[in-house]
């Protein structure tokens, strides 16, 4: 190839790269807003991740955060886009305005959530089946991002990625064979997809719940003897893929807190006094400290992976 052709080729690559970046305009997390508004567009894994977030906010003495979550079980990036295109009402819409969840609607459409508040942060994620399959990210993440950009009341909302977790090693989930029933293989596939999405779709902020859970699986929190007796599958899950209602959900909520609340409001989850006292899964201060440590480590070190 001649020098002239090489120069033309390199110039085209630069313009193509710049064009890809321009397609996905994103905005940084807000700084110390009067009210912070967070919406999770997801499925049961976003429910797991955020279930204890309002209680952690209450424990931290924070009362200016509104959290919403749009939920359809097993909802993929593709289905979110199709729900929007068809105008269907298949979501359950939960909202926390006073640090406790209430059900707004069991027959909501995606726009009922997106247009309910001028959200500062809107999170997206892929369904667990395809969480390690990048083809589905490439096909549908751009479409969902464009929907959010078009419909969000706040034109400078920050779009954030929620990194989900790998299944328990003994999970019987129908999709686990896609990863050869290998937890490490699934985890690394998810990590690769999320890292690529940060660049390809300009979503630099990640809530690394999957990383925090994987860290915790290497600690005493993974001890099955400390899980409620009726949980038949372990490794911080209650059924092989949904998080346990004790440590699993607590770790994920701590990760959401550390990834979003600390950089926006300046308050870390470290030392948070909430111990699940309002549930049947109360934990000790020692265990809460370890859960918080796993979340902080995941958020602090994710950029190094």
Gist?
It contains 10 helices and 7 strands. The protein is an alpha/beta fold and 305 residues long. The model is unreliable at 3-21 (pLDDT under 50).
Question: How would you describe this structure to a colleague?
Answer:
The protein is an alpha/beta fold and 305 residues long. Helices cover 43% and strands 13% of the residues. A seven-stranded mixed β-sheet has the order 4-3-2-1-5-6-7, sandwiched between helices. It is globular and about 50 Å long. Mean pLDDT is 92; it is low at 3-21.
How many β-strands, per DSSP? 7
> Which spans of ≥5 residues are poorly predicted at pLDDT below 50?
3-21
Radius of gyration: 20 Å
Beta-strand content bin: 5-15%
Name the CATH architecture: 3-Layer(aba) Sandwich
Decide which structural class fits the backbone: alpha/beta
Helix coverage percent of residues?
Answer: 40-55%
- Taken together, the total number of domains comes to 1
Spatially, the strands of the biggest sheet line up as 4-3-2-1-5-6-7
Q: List the secondary-structure elements in sequence, H or E.
A: HEHHEHEEHEHEHEHHH
CATH class: Alpha Beta
